[in-house]
Design goal:
By secondary structure, the protein is an all-alpha fold. The chain has five helices and no strands. The protein is elongated and about 50 Å long. One of its GO terms (cellular component) is endomembrane system.
Length: 140
């Protein structure tokens, strides 16, 4: 997420195509960033409460399938929180090319992170994960 945020900043400098004619008030973008952070923190608290790993690099260490809280609405609410943060950042930058880069983040996460995590979770939890996967969308 940090790399995409930096890339968005560079795009805003290289291609200054404004989203709004006037500079928007920073309140809404900062509120979006705060909401994204809150989503991430709520999910982290759930992982800690359930005593399972939060480390996306080691999903094989997962001990329980979490399907409550925000996980009843999205299989990947932490990544969704990242998208909300990036959207707030893009609005703060007031830059269309920067906002378009969010689609690249979503594609990257889908292809190179989420697919691998879901394969491992399917191996670990079998039918339980498949039922969860059919009932809860990947993003929203």
């Amino acid at each position: 997420m940090v790399l995409f945020a930096i890339a968005m900043w560079f795009l805003a400098i290289l291609f200054p195509v404004s989203l709004f004619k006037t500079e928007p008030h920073a309140l809404f973008p900062l509120l979006m960033i705060a909401v994204g952070l809150l989503v991430i923190l709520l999910c982290a608290a759930t992982f800690i409460r359930k005593k399972t790993t939060l480390n996306p690099i080691r999903p094989e260490s997962t001990t329980i399938l979490i399907s409550s809280g925000l996980y009843q609405y999205s299989r990947n609410p932490i990544y969704l929180g990242f998208v909300i943060i990036l959207a707030g950042w893009g609005m703060y930058l007031n830059n269309i090319p920067a906002l378009l880069l969010i689609a690249g983040f979503i594609f990257y996460m889908d292809r190179f992170q989420i697919e691998l995590e879901e394969q491992l979770l399917s191996q670990i939890f079998g039918d339980q994960f498949e039922i969860y996967k059919r009932s809860v969308r990947r993003w929203l």
